[in-house]
Specification:
The chain is an all-alpha fold. It is 78% helix and 0% strand.
Amino acid sequence: MRQATRHVGALALAALALLLLSGCTNLGAVREFAATSASMTNYQAATARYVGSAERQLTDLPADRRFDATRQNLGSLRSITAQDRETLLKLHATTTGYMSALAQLAGEDAYSLAPDIQKVSGAIQASSALGIDATQVSAYGNIAQRVSDWALEAVQARSVKAMVERNGADIDKLLEAMQRATTAYGAVLDQEVASYELISDYRAAQWSARLPGDSALTPERREVIDALLRRSACVDLADQQQALREQQAAAAGLERVRKSHQLMMENADRLRSKDIQRSLRQATSDLKSIRQSLSTL
């Protein structure tokens, strides 16, 4: 009798193990999407480029009085981006931490919560420059109160559905804020390119002008200086164009993350269904391609 009982118990444990393994397998697409999304939301190069734009331009701005108005505008931009910096870093840390937690909940024990998750505290600020409004500030406040529970949920709940239902709407607002911010980066980087081209033309004109007392500056020497200026401008403009491509790729990646996350929110009861799995796998593939393109830029 005892042997039979042990046999039945062993079969029950084996069946439970298979069920758990099946659950993890069925959530594989969720896990892969969440892990890939975390690498996308944690991409901060475009943010760093935006935050540093005003300082780069001020450093390069000639002392001539004709640039005083530009200098004043850039000083204002530097103040705004300095204020925005902490908000942007918190958005990166929060969305990355959420996606990392989802990956854990879906069965990927090797994927740990984002190391920067301790930065998720306090509040973020509304920013007209970035298009971040009160609804996103409120959503961040909601998330900040719950983020300390994510690690515990990853151990105890093992429920992606509960995680998405509890946090999804607020995270969607934060992803929207990141989308708006990344779009705003593009406008600032476009302005940086236009400003650099104007300054390059000004410097070229300064060297080409013939002034009294500069007879030692022969046409040959002028040509050398002009060639160096053109070469330097080509390198700098290529770097700026690369920054714009990075911004555009980051914007495309965030859009893909948000749309697929919205799909999960709308189908929280059907995350194991074949059509949702297929959509998430396609999103993962797209995000990996975008992330790879960012690595090679």
